[in-house]
UniProtKB/TrEMBL annotation:
The chain crosses the membrane at residues 12-32, 163-185. It catalyses: ATP + protein L-histidine = ADP + protein N-phospho-L-histidine. This is histidine kinase. SMART domains: HAMP (SM00304), HATPase_c (SM00387), HisKA (SM00388). Pfam families: HAMP, HATPase_c, HisKA. Residues 183-235 form the HAMP domain. Its EC number is 2.7.13.3. GO terms for molecular function: kinase activity. The keyword Transcription regulation does not apply. It is a multi-pass membrane protein.
């Protein structure tokens, strides 16, 4: 499978690498060709110079012939002229191209240095050099050397073939490398895409965990984490829904059952009143439950605003204590507020009052007559800690981690006098956390419970 991204990455790499390779190869090629041609030319010039030096020592018939004979056996052609351009010796037959070179030489001038007189190896059949013969400062003649360009062309052709071969191998290797690379890069992406598609189709069991510690590895791990979170959320939602339907069904069953009994003709007036009372109570319970659920839904969607202000913590605690006092008195439970110093807290007073009311309500519901509940507050660094302690029944250790879960109650049977819905602490936790604070619970089964709320300190204006 060759998807679009790998094609794009591959093509991009390929074009770039091809441009770089083409540039490097051509530079190398032209440098090598130039060097080779230069070498051949220098050789030819040196050869001509050697002959001219020999002739400068002895400019005689025998030496001339000797030079001619020597070059007849080689690929080079030597032409020796006198100072006017008259040919004295030529080692091979002369071709028109060579005569053209001689014709174009200015014999009137007196040359001192040897030079290359024909270097167009690409178009001409011969390259040529001219080494002057100077005897006792007098110009005596020229040694013209010709070398066939076919040798140079052969060398260059050979070089060209080698470069072509290496070039093809490089391009093939580049393509293979790029194909492999783009696959290595895109394969995890393809797997992640498939995994997210799987997620959106409702299958949360994706496992992409990889050992890579680069960005792709991080992304894969993030997707895996997302899938487990999603799975957990789904399970929590299912559990929540089934608890809710259970919570709603119980009071509705009561209401329906008692309403049916009311209909019967043999119910006495006293029974009627009692059953009506139960129906009213259950309806009220349902109203509270639905109200709490609605509140939680708003908290979940962040559709509530916290209006923080600096509030005197002692005033807040005292007013809450006044509110709940009658209920505590009824159950003969002592309630005391104990604050070392008054400090301002940066909170939404109504929301925090709601939290405290629920904690105190729990403490009262689970305390025994004659027991004591204390509200304490302390200040540490930038935090304010409120601790509500009771001497009630406590919570078994294994239940403690779940008390902040929605609809969680320690007593599973819904007794009507203690019957909460199990939402109070869940709401309290949401509210405290949205204040940037923390809430936790310590409890000893049979001895009592302490709930601690930690909030940020406000600014003291006094
Ligand atoms: N002080 C406490 N002592 C003993 N158990 C407690 C205490 N506070 C809470 N619990 C246990 O934790 C459970 C959850 O408390 P939470 O306030 O969330 O729900 P609730 O009081 O049952 O119902 P709601 O507050 O919605 O009316 C309670 O049902 C109770 O079993
Ligand atoms: Mg409660």
């Amino acid at each position: 499978m060759f998807n679009k991204l790998s094609l794009k990455i591959g093509l991009l790499f390929f074009v770039f690498i091809l441009i770089i390779e083409a540039f490097l190869f051509s530079t190398l090629y032209f440098t090598l060709v130039d060097e080779r041609v230069e070498e051949v030319m220098e050789n030819l010039l040196a050869r001509g110079d050697t002959h001219s030096e020999v002739l400068e020592d002895s400019f005689e018939e025998m030496t001339l012939e000797h030079v001619g004979m020597m070059e007849a056996a080689t690929d080079f052609i030597a032409v020796i002229t006198d100072e006017t351009g008259e040919i004295l010796v030529n080692s091979d037959d002369l071709e028109p191209e060579m005569l053209t070179v001689l014709k174009h030489t200015d014999f009137a001038e007196m040359p001192i240095y040897s030079k290359i007189v024909e270097k167009d190896w690409q178009k001409k059949r011969y390259i040529a050099t001219d080494s002057p013969i100077t005897i006792h400062d007098e110009h005596a003649g020229h040694v013209f050397m010709f070398a066939p360009t076919k040798d140079i062309k052969r060398i260059v052709d050979h070089l060209k073939n080698q470069f072509l071969l290496v070039g093809i191998i490089t391009v093939v290797l580049t393509i293979v490398t790029i194909l492999l690379l783009s696959r290595i890069i895109t394969l995890p992406l393809i797997r992640m895409k498939e995994a997210t598609e799987q997620l959106s189709q409702g299958d949360n069991q994706v496992n992409l965990t990889s050992d890579r510690n680069d960005e792709l590895g991080e992304l894969a791990n993030a997707i895996t984490k997302l899938s487990t979170d999603l799975d957990r959320l789904k399970n929590a939602r299912n559990e929540f829904l089934s608890s809710i339907s259970h919570e709603l069904r119980t009071p509705l069953t009561y209401i329906k059952g008692y309403a049916d009994i009311l209909d019967r003709s043999d119910t006495t007036e006293r029974e009627r009143e009692e059953y009506m009372g139960i129906i009213r109570e259950e309806a009220a319970h349902l109203t509270v439950l639905v109200g709490n659920l609605f509140e939680l839904a708003k908290l979940d969607r962040n559709q509530f605003t916290i209006q923080k202000q600096d509030v005197s913590i002692v005033e807040l605690l005292t007013s809450v204590a006044v509110l709940v006092k009658p209920a505590f008195d009824d159950q003969e439970i002592e309630l005391s507020v104990n604050c070392e110093e008054d400090v301002p807290a940066s909170i939404d007073p109504e929301r925090i009052q709601q939290v405290l009311l629920n904690i105190l309500d729990n403490a009262r519901k689970h305390s025994f007559a004659g027991g004591r509940v204390t509200i304490e507050c302390r200040q540490e660094a930038g935090n304010i800690t409120i601790c509500i302690t009771d001497e009630g029944q406590g919570i078994p250790e294994e239940e403690l981690p779940f008390v902040f879960d929605r609809l969680y109650r320690v007593e599973k049977s819904r007794s009507r006098e203690r019957g909460g819905s199990g939402l109070g602490l869940a709401i309290a936790k949401e509210i405290v956390e949205s204040h940037g604070g923390q809430i936790w619970m310590d409890s000893q089964f049979g001895e009592g419970t302490a709930v601690t709320v930690q909030l940020k300190r406000g600014v003291d204006h006094s």
